[in-house]
Amino acid sequence: MLTYLSRRLVTMILTLLALSVVVFIVIQLPPGDFVTSYIASLSASGESVDQDTIIALRERYKLDSPVLVQYWAWLSEILVGNFGYSFEMQRPVSEIFSQRIGVSLALELTAVVVMWAVSIPIGIYSAVNQYSVGDYVATILGFLGLAIPNFLFALVLMYICYNWFGVTITGLFSPEYMNARWSLDRFLDFASHVWAPILVISTAGAAQLVRVLRANLLDELNKPYVLTARAKGLTRRRMIWRYPVRVAMNPLVSTIGWVLPTVISSSFVTAIVLNLPTLSPILLRALLSQDMYLAGALIMFMGLLTLVGTLISDLLLAWIDPRIRLGMVGAN
Amino acid sequence: MSLITSADSPEDRIGAVRDTPEAPVGEVDPRIDASHGTESQWQLIRRRFAKHRLAVISLWILGLFVLVAVFAGFVAPNDPGDVKARYTYAPPQALHFIDRSDDGWSIRPYVYGYKVEIEPEALRRTFVIDEEKKVYLTFFKRSWDYKLFGLIPTDIHLLGPEKTRDPFYLFGADRLGRDMFSRLVYGTQISLSVGLVGVIMSLVLGVIIGGAAGYFGGWFDAVTQRAIEFLRSLPTIPLWMGLAAAMPSDWSPLQTYFAITLILSFLGWTELARVVRGRFLALNGEDYVAAARYDGCSHLRVIVRHMVPAFTSHIITAASLAVPAMILAETALSFLGLGLQAPVISWGVLLQEAQNIRTLATAPWLLLPGAAIVIAVLAMNFIGDGLRDAADPYAK
Amino acid sequence: MNDTVLEVRGLSVAFPHRKGETTAISDVSFDLKLGETTCFVGESGSGKSVTARAVLNIVEPAVIKAGAINLVDVQAGQKVELSGLDPDGAEIRAVRGARIAMIFQEPMSSLSPVHTIGQQIIEAILLHQDVDSAGARAKAIEALRAVQIANPEEAIDKYPFEYSGGMRQRAMIAMALGCEPDILIADEPTTALDVTTQAEILKLLKGLQESRDMAVMFITHDMGVVAEIADQVVVMLHGAVVETGPVDQVFHAPSHAYTKKLLRASMGLDEAPHGRSTPQSDEVLIETQCLSLAFPSKKKFLKKLTGGVQALDNVSVELRRGEILGIVGESGSGKTTLARVLMGRFQPQEGRAVYHTRDGGTKNLTDKASFRDGQVYREMRMIFQDPYGSLNPRMTVEQIIGEPLLVNGLLKGAALRKRVGELLERVGLPASAMERYPHAFSGGQRQRIGIARAIALDPRVIIADEATSALDGSIRAQILDLLLDLRDELDLAILFIAHDIGVVRYFCDRVAVMHKGRVVETGTAVQICDTPQDPYTQRLISAVPIPDPRKRHLVA
Predict the structure, then answer these.
(1) Which of B304, C11, C259, C364 has its CA 20 to 30 A from that of C530?
(2) Rounded distance, CA B351 to CA A328, Å?
(3) What is d(CA C46, CA C67) in angstroms, rounded to the nearest whole number?
(4) Edge-to-edge, what's the strand order for the sheet holding C37-41?
(5) What is the pLDDT of residue A57?
(6) Do the bridges between strand C350-356 and strand C362-364 make them parallel or antiparallel, or are there none, so unpaired?
(7) What is the rounded distance in angstroms from the CA atom of residue A204 to the CA atom of residue A211?
(8) pLDDT tens for each residue of B196-211
């Protein structure tokens, strides 16, 4: 198990490095370099820059050196936690980062938990009662969940809530609770806002999970060991939960890691539409204003989140599936 | 048809038994399908696909979309770029066919016109459907010029108001008074073709890389596996955004269009490569592939004649499930302003207008491109599902 | 007189579907008695499995349409009618696993892959018996000991995939016997096992039956197994019982035509062999000397190397013109690897293998380059084991048989079609079959198509890789007779790889016995089968069931 863990960690670090290379290439794509766009945005906001600052910046980011050196300079700055300065918000990005990272993470994690909690019972019910009305409804909802893009769902939800209930669902807090201390009232206010983004984010992921679980469970239900369990005298419920569900969980657990990129992506767009105080609006702004260093740092962070998620899911899978744990050949 | 061992088999031979396929002695095998013995793979697939009613209906719907996209200019009653400040945010007009007047009724298409009302609170001008004014429509109306298929200049449209100046907004108007229906029709062209072109590029990449990995194995396979895993673990939208934002803003819409599809296909080939590789690996283990080699077939013949027909249907299935993903991605990118931009019209660009909650509240018809997206994506998913079930008629 | 513990009368089961229903079994009646083994025999599709499952009412999606199943409690003198009970109800669940237990054919897929053996046995015990978990664990260890699994205290915590095939079946038996049932239903438990392992399991079952005075319902298609262990026999065909009776009567005085046919098709070692004991020709076509091939161990990054496998170890055999050489062995013996080496699929690390061509030349089979000009593939052809996997489902029969002719530039167009028609008729199929696709044909018919493909190029050697192992008895007999005819007509040499000793004795001239990659003995078929010299061969031959109840030797 330890060897498996160390192997996966090494893979993850290598992947991160590869990602940083890709991101760096993306950063370099627009014409000009960081400093020119920095100067441009400064002069756009009406400030002027003196030569010394320019020279200092060039030195800091080694912009006159070969590409590899630039890459290393950029990477080392990121690793230290220095993401640059944002002009729109007049603060170092790391400050904005630390403020919003909590909300971002909380949102992702809650969405993932909700997704799991919702999709497992639906998936099992669907597979066990194939062709029933409930299965039909679940399948249709699942398809809709896959077909409706997140932002559209968010928009429609906004519209319905506004027109029919007079409620605005943007943001996570009402103005009066925005910067207040945590209290029961603030929590209730939070809950009354957070259901909307959670609903939107988890729908697409849940639809995917339900499909995967249903398909895998249907496969397992026809396998011989289920018959053996039945012949032992188990009740139908125990027979299903102890055996095929247990086995069908394995691919589901491994899928959870791969659903993470989807969750992060969909939360990204949703956060922008619903104007949530997460990292996503910042990334969008950075992209639109071609502030590539900031954008690059944020993309790296999201990539890190994804990779950590897949690592956790792979470890979980190894833990619950003895075939992988004990190194059986052909377990996958 | 009867099975006979050699006519004069000696009595001490065990196998001297006659059996007929109608009652083969002791052999009842569900895998035999004698009634469709002469059907080729494609005929079997088509028959199985037809059993999925939902998939068949979706096929018709998709066909309708494609038809509209191809004949965009003909179907659109108004010029999509035509700004009519008089009719900003005009609501949709319902289409009626039965014209009732004092002296009986006749079949004549028409819509109701508008009258302007001033909203007392906000002092805003709004349009209201005026049931007194009837705007009659004719088929094959001559109005604005366009080029059919981009080649043939003409000005005939499917439907249009008799008096050319009359307003005809089936799906309402946007903030510049442009006809949403016509814009939607033209948007269909771009959105569908982005999906198609993107998938074709993904297909080429995926089949070549996946096929090579599956057939030759070894280090190439290992490298490809790692690469695919890496690409799959990336959060796609942020990366797409990054690539899209990195494109120079002085490129023409066409260049941006191709760049976008290139970006989309670059991340989409992994799924297709996985499918192709998986099939190749599975096929390599099949006895009939070995038999083909032992028949004396060259590598090329084995691949083309014996293996390719086995996974063509799978490729089509995977491709048809990849198109909706492409469309959704383009829509998201354009919606955020990072993909296609005005004056190019796609469903995502159209939805940009609907970002503001106040705008939405007064003009909810701006969300109609969303309906088009959902229907198109649903239809393609159903078709893909139907194909997937039908794809391997020989699965045990 | 043994007590009757199960009475089944008029049992009928059908599968419902949209257009009506298909009958699986109809009007089946039989009795099971304590201390007796009743064998249900028939070919695939006869309904024997469905009957077994119907006893426990686990036939879904099928439904029991009619009939009575009475379980007798011998001590209390009470009867419980099983078929009418709710299939999910508590009553029948109390019977399942406790009074009637069942074991299945494939222990690997019939045991849960993610639970230990111990967990699965203990679950059964806890379900039906009033013990705590420590007591259940003790009982489970006892059960494992009773089925002769070594080190039961350790074995109990292992997963199914850590066991070998025979051990898994033993574990399954232990799980079934954990609650000391009156009836044990065994659905083809030894079909997937090697013949030596089968002998051990049969012995084990018989011993357990005697010590616990159980009734055993044993389902099989192998008449040899029936003869070895049965007290009563029930013969089934197309879902109906065609004959029942004591085993001696069924074997020596069968009344139904189908029973007679089954008996004739079961190839025991008593069957008159058709091999030639003296070779017709001295001309050697294929010779191998000291072939050795080891498959490399699986390497894992940062992990220890697991052991490699010596697939071939110093193998030397000869195939002469016109002779049928049998290569016999159990799984892992290397016989399939030998065939692959001869066809150029693998290259051995040591030794030589040579093929003498028709025009007098020699081809070095250990060199991949020898196959490039295609001559070897024209004169050495192969027939495969799986009739469903060896024909490309997307090609018509004409295309399949015509492919070697086309690719070698020999025929095309109308002449090709004519030749394909001739070949089809030669193997016993009508020429019109060439327009159809493989999915229209049964397993036996597909093998005939495969044979037609093999002889299309008028070869000298045919390598038959377990060509009849996937076929039922009577069909197998037909295919073997066809091959014998072809051998006589076309002057073929056949390398026949098999694991069924009876088939080999009937069919082959000479036999080479392989075990763990080595050839342990060679001789004429009759010599090897009747008077084996090598200890492994002796063990192998003595484990073969004899389809004559008067000659029982496996379970003394």
Answers:
(1) C259
(2) 51
(3) 18
(4) C100-103, C183-187, C215-220, C37-41, C232-237, C240-246
(5) 65
(6) antiparallel
(7) 11
(8) 888 888 888 888 888 8
Is residue C400 within 8 A of residue C392, CB to CB? The reply is: yes
Nearest to C322 by CA among C503, C483, C525, C451: C483
Are C321 and C313 spatial neighbours (Cβ–Cβ below 8 Å)?
A: no
Residue pair B351/B235 in contact (Cβ under 8 Å)? The answer is no
Half-sphere exposure of B310 (CA within 13 A, CB side): 27
Single out the residue of C177, C186, C65 nearest to residue C125, CA to CA.
Answer: C177
Give the Å distances, CA to CA, from A96 to A41, A104, A280, B309, C522. Answer: 19, 12, 12, 56, 83
Backbone angles phi, psi at B350, to 5 degrees: -65, -35
Higher pLDDT, A40 or C526: C526
Residue C529 near residue C501 (C-beta atoms within 8 A): yes
Q: Say whether A233 and C113 touch across the interface (CB within 8 A).
A: no
Burial class (CB in 10 A: 0-12, 13-18, 19+), B28: middle
Please report residues of C whose CB lies closer than 8 A to that of A244.
Answer: none
Instruction: Render the burial of B315-332: b for 16+ CB within 10 Å, e for the rest.
Output: bbbbbbbbbbbbbbbbbb
One-letter amino acid of C97: G
DSSP-derived secondary structure letter, C96: B
d(CA B256, CA B245): 11
Give the model's confidence band at B23: pLDDT under 50 very low, under 70 low, under 90 confident, else very high: very low
Residues of B in contact with A290 (CB under 8 A): 245-246
* Inter-chain contacts counted by CB atoms under 8 A, chains B and C: 152
Identify the H or E element spanning B27.
none
Per-10-residue mean pLDDT, chain A, length 332: 78 82 74 63 64 68 69 74 61 72 78 86 86 83 83 84 75 68 73 82 82 83 88 88 85 72 76 79 74 74 79 78 61 38
Q: Compute the nearest-CA separation of C481 from chain B (Å).
A: 6
Structure tokens at A196: 């909307």
Element (H, E) at C38: strand C37-41
Chain A residues whose C-beta is within 8 A of a chain C C-beta are: 3, 6-7, 223-225, 227-236, 242-243, 246-247, 250, 320-323, 326-329
Q: Decide: residue C129, CB within 10 A, 0-12 exposed, 13-18 middle, 19+ buried.
A: middle
From the list A269, A295, A310, the residue facing B242 with the nearest CB is: A295
The answer to whether C235 and C220 are in contact (CB under 8 A) is no
d(C-alpha C540, C-alpha C197), whole Å: 10
Q: Is B83's Cβ below 8 Å from some Cβ in A?
A: no
Two tokens at C510? 């000479």
Q: Enumerate residues 221 to 240 of chain B having a beta carbon within 8 A of any beta carbon in chain A.
A: 229-230, 232-239
State how far the Cα of A178 lies from the Cα of A271, in Å rounded to an integer. 17
Buried b / exposed e along B145-165 (16+ C-beta atoms within 10 A): ebeeeeeeeeeebebbbeeee
Q: Which residues contact C332 (CB under 8 A, 6 or more apart)?
A: C516
**DSSP run (H or E) holding C2:** none
**DSSP helix/strand/coil, B128:** strand
Q: List the 271-300 stretch of C: residues with Cβ below 8 A of B.
A: 271-272
The DSSP letter of residue C274 is -
Closest-CA distance, A265 to chain B, in angstroms, reads: 5
Helix spans in B233-307 (H): 236-245, 253-284, 287-295, 299-301
- A292 at B interface, C-beta within 8 A: yes
Are B3 and C46 in contact (CB < 8 Å)? no
Two structure tokens written together for A139: 């399948």
Q: Which residue has the tokens 């159809």?
A: C436
* Helix (H/G/I), strand (E/B), else coil: C387: coil
- To test the contact with chain C by mutation, choose from B2, B5, B20, B27 the residue with the greatest count of C C-beta atoms within 10 A, namely B27
Q: Dig out the tokens for A134 from the structure.
A: 């409930």
